[in-house]
Amino acid sequence: MSVADDLRPGAVRTLGRRLGERWRGRELLYQLVRKELKVRYRNSTLGFLWSMLTPALMTVVFTIIFTQIVPIEVGGPFAAFFLAGYLLWQFFQNSCQGAIHSVVGNADLVKKVYLPREVLPLSHVLAQLIHLLLALLVISPYLIWARGWQVLVHLPATLLAVALLTVFTSGVAMWLAGVNVVFRDLQELFVVMFLVWFYATPVLYPLALVRAMLGSEHLLATLLQFNPMTWFVELFRTPLYGAVVEAGNGGVTSLAPAWPGVGAIAIALAFAVVTFVGGYLVFLRRARTFAKEV
Amino acid sequence: MPDRRSLGQLTGLELDPSRPAVVVDRLTESFRLYHERPTGLKERLYRLSRSSYTEFNALEDVSFTVDHGESVAVIGHNGSGKSTLLRLLARILPPDQGTVVTNGRVASLLELGAGFHGDLTGRENIYLNGAILGLSRAEIGERFDEIVDFAGIRPLLDTAVRTYSSGLYVRLGFSIAVTVDPDILLVDEVLAVGDAEFQARSLARMRRFHDEGKTILLVSHDLDAVREMCDRAIVLEKGRISFDGDVEDGVDHYRQTIAGRATLPPTPAGRRGPVTIRDAVLNDARGGSAGQVAPSDQVVVRLALQAGRAVAACSIGVQVADESGRTLYAFVSSEQGIGVGPLAPGGTATVEVRMVAPRRAGEYTVTAFIGDATDGEVLAVAPTVSPLRVAATRRAAGNLDLAASAQVVEGPSTTVVAASTLHHDTTDASHRRS
To answer: Taken in order A228, A234, A236, A237, is the CA torsion positive or negative?
Structure first.
């Protein structure tokens, strides 16, 4: 295939070939991720600790509110339950927030340099991934203390959940970055969109509690299952905190950290792949004219 | 299927010597100019699909072929499509119609230091920018010292680049960019930045590329650099190729288009002006054609005009512009109370405007125009048939003739013969370039 084919309008670019090209573009991605991390902490003395401050404070605040004032039953220590979902959510939201501006904010690069444009949103996702892994490392002693050695035993499952979420997040990030170029309102909608999405994801409360209180046939319980993030959070929480299940008396109880079910993995995998492919295709379609529109 | 060797700036296939370096075939690229672009939800809801825009072709039906080792200048006015063409060749833009085929690795120098981050140090930015240009860490490592020395930033290597001067910033950008070793190099005006010394060095670097048999496409307004660097010129006018051939002819062609536009409004289109310029020639003081004159020599612009309808009074103007189209001098006869008229329909007149040639050696365009004496409206514009070429006098060295003369006011004086011939070679050389 010649460059001419590559450039002809309407030429079919196969995803696989582009992915192959991207693999060779990893050097650029690596440098951009490095830049992302360095720039963020260059001028701060506390450096990485800053990125731990938000989840730490949120955990303290939410733990006080939802254990002392409006108790939410999680079948175990609330802080551990919350952290085991919130870290994942924070990764997702921060990645998307960085990515949505990544094309519009790099107008000079996009207009003047040929580069595989996907690296712009993807570099944000990967930088956040590194944060997530470091945060997990920092938080794990607490989780082990709170939930036992089982947390460590099931580490591969935790990492699998992170990997699947990274694929999913990449798809969403590329979609946001690409669409924001032609539809700038997206970045305004983003805040409200993600706020709603946060509460629609069982981070503050276990999915089992919704089922236990409303019945598993209830519309809300059903709707929550259509939220991909529900699956990723559950998948992440099962090996890290333990599955939260209905206790039968309208309450919930938590099990020890364990391997997630194959069904849950399959659903998360399906969400991840479909979102990635969809987001990537939209991005590539949009990327053709970035240089004219940014 | 040949593999793409690298990414980023370095794109394209392995070089295949049996095919030309660049083939552009019937390329058309259009842009949309939105009248108040609807990018937000509210606007979208208001007009839905009725977003109003005009589409214009930045490039229209452009075809050309460049062979390996050719160095081609792309010249034209601002907005003629030069940069769009380079961006298409660099794959930054996809073509709307037609094809672009490049053969070999392409590196584009469209912007220096693109992607530099102010908070990162010079060292970190070298790696980042190198990656953007498609170099691997190992490749940058190999060239690191070369980059640092060429840019001359060694003492500042571990300082954030936001503290660099703008000149230093650009120098670092250029140094990284030229270490990319392409088969085809696209350069857009970036050589116009930096101080004289840096410009000379970058030109030398470009020449080396040329001598190594690389293919170069250069966009520049610096006609001197263009003539020095390139063998061939493509002149773009409103997105179309108006000339493609030898660089000297191309530069001449381009100058004529400048003269035609100068900075004056063009003759009102669509109708015949009330006055037309039938002839505008440039003569020397003796009435012969002023093919080449010395600085400060008298020249005469001789203008023959004819009225299309009855004209009460019109004034005659002359404008002199340098190679880059910058107006150096403008004269309107009405300022001296001199006008032509009244003229009956079909009536003719001949006007001579005398002036001295510029003191600086070079090639100038002289444009004659006729204006309405009362409201100053421009009725007709015409460049003189030949440009005004000013060659240096042999009496002194330098480009600028200050008409120096010497006189011994005290002490013995004598007559000496042509000691100043020593300088002739150098002055000649510099004149040919200007």
So the answer is: positive
